[in-house]
Amino acid sequence: MTELVHTRADLATARADCKGTVGVVMTMGALHSGHETLLRAARERADHVIVTVFVNPLQFGPTEDFDRYPRTLDADLEVCRRAGADVVFAPSVTQMYPDGQPSVRIDPGPLGADLEGLSRPGFFHGVLTVVLKLLQLTRPDLTFFGEKDYQQLALVRRMCRDLDVPVEVVGVPTVREPDGLALSSRNRYLSAGEREAALTLSAALRAGVDAAEAGADAGAVLAAAHAAFGAGTPGADLDYLVLTDPDLEPGPVAGPARLLVAAWVGGTRLIDNAAVHLAPRP
Ligand code: PAF
Fold first, then answer.
1. Ligand 1: which residue has its CA nearest to atom 2?
2. The predicted structure's pLDDT at residue 252
3. pTM (2 decimals)?
4. Which residues of the chain have pLDDT under 50?
5. Which atom of ligand 1 lies nearest, measured to the CA of 59?
6. Among the four 16, 113, 125, 210, which has the fewest Cβ within 10 Å?
């Protein structure tokens, strides 16, 4: 049975009933099969699964529409039930921020200022602040984050390491449509034509991965990815297409690396990434 709680007090009671390991999956709702995969990963590893559903105002910029973000709690509960979640914590903004917006926030450091942080200033301060609060409220042994939001995953890992938060952060591979499009709550904003253009992101990653598997070095992998992006259906406006090391530190020369892409498709910002293994420079 899945128990729905809205207050800190009810969450504390439900948490106290959890004997054994606890896994937490944090979401902003509008759950899709990508989230369901996170929940199932949690179900496999933990004795109890808590899902949080909270649209966090702190991570919305002034031009991003917090009020228009989809809120679909009934459908979300159905997904949670199907995936075997034990507790769903869906607090109000006042429950999460009883004293108003917090004046002390988590500083994501240099990693938070790059990539997504460049076009969304303050975004990762808001994300890490609510993630830390939710970790304090739920006190899990494990927490599960999708690799789709790779920079978020890297920053949560970094925060837990740097601030000694006693939780294992588990990354869960991205779920894709059969044609390669990474599942995202934002895909619902795409028209049919935009969805076609959106495939350019995964096509670029695929080309990079294929090049790496064929023995290409960093420069050739990036060149292959850029060429595939350029050859895709017009309509995707590239923001960045970069190679980093697996922890998002700058510039790998060889070995395990991450290829990350972000683009605007119409009014929708999309991101995607893939693991690659780079051959040494000849
Ligand atoms: O990835 C998300 O949905 C959000 O950034 C998170 C981690 C739930 C924090 O609000």
1. 27
2. 65
3. 0.96
4. none
5. 10
6. 16
